[in-house]
Design goal:
Elements lengths: L17 H9 L1 H4 L1 E4 L6 H20 L2 H6 L3 H4 L3 H15 L2 E4 L3 E5 L5 E8 L12 E8 L2 E11 L5 E10 L2 E11 L7 H13 L3 H15 L5 E2 L1 H11 L13 E5 L2 E13 L2 E9 L6 H18 L3 H4 L2 E7 L5 E7 L5
Helix pairs in contact: 3-6, 7-8, 8-9
Length: 341
């Protein structure tokens, strides 16, 4: 489920960065970026943030996108399609859920120009980095202003969600400046379950399986890509210890031989399909117009992938292969793992 993003986030990097972050903190005043956690906020401010967030959630549950747009900052209201789509995609889950707010944060920047790379250290940090009450936010191109970050847990429906709202203070009001939705479970499993499974794969030497499960654990544990906590930092560190060097990425494609040909793989990731956890692999293709031929090539790619990494049989119910033309047009097909021989 994609987020509707109005202020471009910067995904936090794996590994420990706290010595550097402490240095950043020492010059935060000069850069005029500060953070207040819930304990630092005056009661009226905290109440206003929580009340406004609940109001916007209730509007989302009713599908009142027009009302949300009217209550957004001008730049968001002018380009509201992403948030509108996110609301519609999640409305049924919101409508049957009860939302509770987590302690909010207030982020403040000064100046006249957007901050290219704003980092906020919120709460109390220990000598080893984050604590159970801290959080780090990283936002790119953040205009000067006062922002509230409120997280809501939407529970009570089969598909639980975490909603992160960014609110900007305009006069006495808190206007909508960002709307992010992320599932808190997949197939009934939360981040802790995926982390435990990742550790089990790691113990068996199945580092690639462990890597994918750690990534899912992080995704389910972090409400948004621009926020990290003690829990996500620990998972980043654990995941980094099994970082594979032989999996494809857009920067480092993987050449895979199969059926007398070489296929260039560009990405591979875990996904939820129905009641199963599957693996998706994308590869470069010159032409996907012949669906029968492309299906056979997809099958060859799946077979070659499992032959190269047999551990995938232990972690995934099936594989989805997608052949992608230079234009972006693609053709995908899926096979259960038991049919890939």
């Amino acid at each position: 489920m994609d987020n509707a993003r109005r202020m471009a986030p910067c995904k936090l990097r794996p590994g420990r960065r706290w010595l550097w972050l402490w240095l950043v903190a020492t010059v935060a005043a000069a850069q005029a970026q500060t953070c207040q956690s819930a304990e630092d906020l005056d009661a009226p401010v905290r109440t206003a943030l929580e009340t406004t967030a609940k109001k916007y959630f209730d509007m989302s549950a009713r599908g009142d996108t027009a009302g949300l747009q009217q209550n957004s900052i001008p730049s968001v209201a002018a380009s509201f399609g992403g948030i509108e789509a996110a609301v519609k995609d999640n409305q049924s889950a919101f409508a049957s859920a009860q939302a509770t707010t987590r302690p909010p944060f207030v982020l403040m920047t000064e100046g006249t120009e957007p901050m290219a790379h704003a980092e906020f250290l919120c709460g109390v940090f220990g000598k080893s980095g984050q604590t159970s009450d801290s959080a780090v936010f990283v936002l790119n191109n953040l205009p000067p202003g006062k922002y509230g970050v409120v997280l809501l847990d939407a529970k009570g429906s089969p598909d639980e969600r975490v909603v992160t709202l960014i609110l900007q203070q305009i006069g006495e009001d808190w206007k909508l400046a960002g709307f992010y939705v992320r599932p808190s479970q997949i197939q009934g499993h939360d981040g802790a379950w995926f982390a435990q499974r990742a550790r089990e794969f790691k113990a068996k030497g199945q580092t690639r399986n462990a890597w994918f499960y750690y990534q899912e654990a992080i995704s389910l544990s972090a409400p948004a890509d621009f926020m990290s906590t003690l829990a996500t930092d620990r998972l980043y560190d654990e995941g980094h210890s099994v970082l594979p060097e032989d999996l494809p990425s857009s920067e480092h494609p993987l050449d895979l031989s199969g059926g007398g040909k070489t296929y260039r793989l560009t990405t591979i990731f875990l996904t939820s399909v129905g009641s199963d956890l599957d693996l998706v692999v994308k590869y470069q293709a010159t032409d996907v117009s012949n669906s029968g031929r492309t299906f056979q090539e997809n099958k060859v790619v799946m077979q070659a992938l499992v032959a190269k990494f047999p551990e995938f049989r232990d972690a995934f119910a099936g594989i989805v292969a997608r052949a992608v033309e230079p234009s972006g047009k693609d053709f995908g097909s899926m096979l259960p793992m038991k049919e890939i021989k």
